[in-house]
Amino acid sequence: MNNNIKILVLAFIALLSSCSSDSDSNQDINTNNTNKGFLKIGSQTIELSQGYLENYGIRGNAYNIDFSLRSKSISATENGAVVYFELFSSLQNNLARGDYSYGGFSEATAYTFTKWGQSLLGTNINNAKGTLSVTNGVSIRPTGGIFKVIENGAKYKVSFTGKGTATVFKDGVIASTQNDVSFTIQYFGDVKKSEGKTFVSTAKNASAIEKDHAVIFK
C-alpha cells in the first residue's frame, strides 16, 4: 500500500473511531442483557442488536446454515453494521455448538465457514441487486479465524476472532484494500429463523446462484 492510501485508510478509521459505540474496556457480552453484541474492525466498534439464522438445506454431508447480525440502525447518515457468515453445520436446523474454521464451499464440511462471509461497517449499508455493500465505510471478507457457537438454544451465543481482506469505500467507490485486517464479533441473544432464498445472478457473464440477504433489512 502506498503512502497516500495508508493516510486515507488511517484517516477513515480515525473518523469512524470518533463515533464508536463501545470502549475497548467494555466489549465482553453481558449475558444478563438480551440481544447484545458488537462488530469490531480495527479501532471501530459498532453495537449489534439482532441475529438471523437462514437454513439453505443439506449439502454433501452437512447443512448449509447462514448466520447474520445487524445493528439497530442502518442509514445513510448514521454508522451501522451488518455481519454475514456462511457456515456448514452437523445439525439440520441449528448451528451445532463448537468451533468453525475456514473452509471451502465445495467441500461442504461440517464445522467450517466459507470465504463468502462479509461484515460491513459504515453508512448506507444496503442489499441492492442482492449484494451487500456500503457507500461510506469498510467491508471485510474473512480469510481465516474461528467462529464459535457457544449456545444454540432459546438464545444464541457466538463469537468470531480472525482476519480478512478489508475494502474501504468512499461515496460508493473503492478507496483502498488491505489484507490481514483483524476483526472481532460477539453476540448473545435471539435469532430470527427462516428458510434461505437464492436467485440467479443477473450480472454480466455470471450464472452462479446467489443468496438473498433481504431478511437482514426487514
Written description of the protein model:
The protein is built from one helix and 14 strands; from the N terminus they run αββββββββββββββ. The protein has a five-stranded mixed β-barrel with strand order 5-7-6-9-8. A two-stranded antiparallel sheet has the order 13-14. By secondary structure, the protein is mostly beta strands. The N and C termini lie far apart (38 Å).
Write a concise synopsis of the structure shown.
The protein is mainly beta. Helices cover 7% and strands 55% of the residues. It is built from 1 helix and 14 strands; from the N terminus they run αββββββββββββββ.
Secondary-structure class: mainly beta
Instruction: Give the oligomeric state of the chains in this entry, treating copies of one chain as homo and distinct chains as hetero.
Output: single chain
| Mean pLDDT over all positions | 85
Shape: globular
Q: What's the main sheet like?
A: 5 strands, mixed, barrel
Give the terminus-to-terminus CA distance.
38 Å
Number of strands: 14
Count of alpha and pi helical runs:
1
* Helix and strand element order: HEEEEEEEEEEEEEE
Q: Into which percent range does the helicity of residues fall?
A: under 10%
Task: For the largest sheet, list the strands in their spatial order.
Answer: 5-7-6-9-8
- Detail the poorly predicted runs: 1-11, 13-27
Strand content: over 45%
Radius of gyration: 17 Å
